[in-house]
Amino acid sequence: MTNRQKFTEVFDCEIVRRDTGEPVPGHCKILIAESEHFDEWLQKEYEPSAQPGWIPVTERLPENEQEVFVTVEVRPYGRKPFRRVVRAFYTDGRHTDADSAYSWDEFPDPQYDDDDNMIIPEGWWESSDYLEQQGMIDDFVIAWREPLKPWEGDDK
């Protein structure tokens, strides 16, 4: 029996709104598991190396300013770490604001090159399409992957 089979005891449930008590359309499932095995299963199930397309940052980094999805491990003080996926890009610390496809505000204690262009610090940046802003990711980026292609539809 695999770990996945150990966790197939599932119960249907209904989600209701707190403010009105009305049912929310859709469904939910409650997964019942033995806690001694659940953490092990969860770690394996969501480990980037177990999912096709994910590249650990220890193996390779994306091109400078290439938009990708990243798995971020958040390690809150006093609580169990968890992982999430965000859209981001990496900068190598040799790139300047003049070379960048993004608009950059000044950083605290900025560094400049000989042509007075601000050097973008090395790091991972969460990207946003509609706000035209980016923020430094200060949690632990552990893997990245190419973004999904947009849906093209059946317009014929």
Descriptive account of the structure:
It is a single chain. This protein has helices spanning 3-6, 35-45, and strands at residues 9-13, 28-32, 55-56, 68-74, 82-91, 123-127, 134-136, 140-145. It is built from two helices and eight strands, in the order αββαββββββ. It folds into two domains: 1-45, no CATH class; 53-149, no CATH class. The protein is extended and about 65 Å long. With 156 residues, the chain is mainly β. The strands form two sheets. A six-stranded antiparallel sheet has the order 3-8-4-5-6-7, with no helix packed on it. Strands 1-2 form a two-stranded antiparallel ribbon. A hairpin with a 7-residue loop joins β4 and β5.
Summarize the structure.
The protein has helices at about 5, 35-45; strands spanning about 10-15, 30, 55, 70-75, 80-90, 125, 135, 140-145. The chain has about 160 residues and is mainly β. A hairpin with a 7-residue loop joins strand 4 (about 70-75) and strand 5 (about 80-90).
Number of strands: 8
Q: Quick check: average pLDDT?
A: 77
Tell me the Rg in angstroms. Answer: 21 Å
- In percent, how helical is the residue content? under 10%
**Shape, per Cα inertia axes:** extended
As a percent range, the share of strand residues is 25-35%
* Helix/strand structural class: mainly beta
Neighbour order of strands in the largest sheet: 3-8-4-5-6-7
Overall tally of domains:
2
Largest sheet composition? 6 strands, antiparallel
Order of helices and strands: HEEHEEEEEE
The unreliable regions are: 1-11, 29-34
Distance from N terminus to C terminus (CA atoms, Å) equals 47 Å
Q: Helical element count?
A: 2
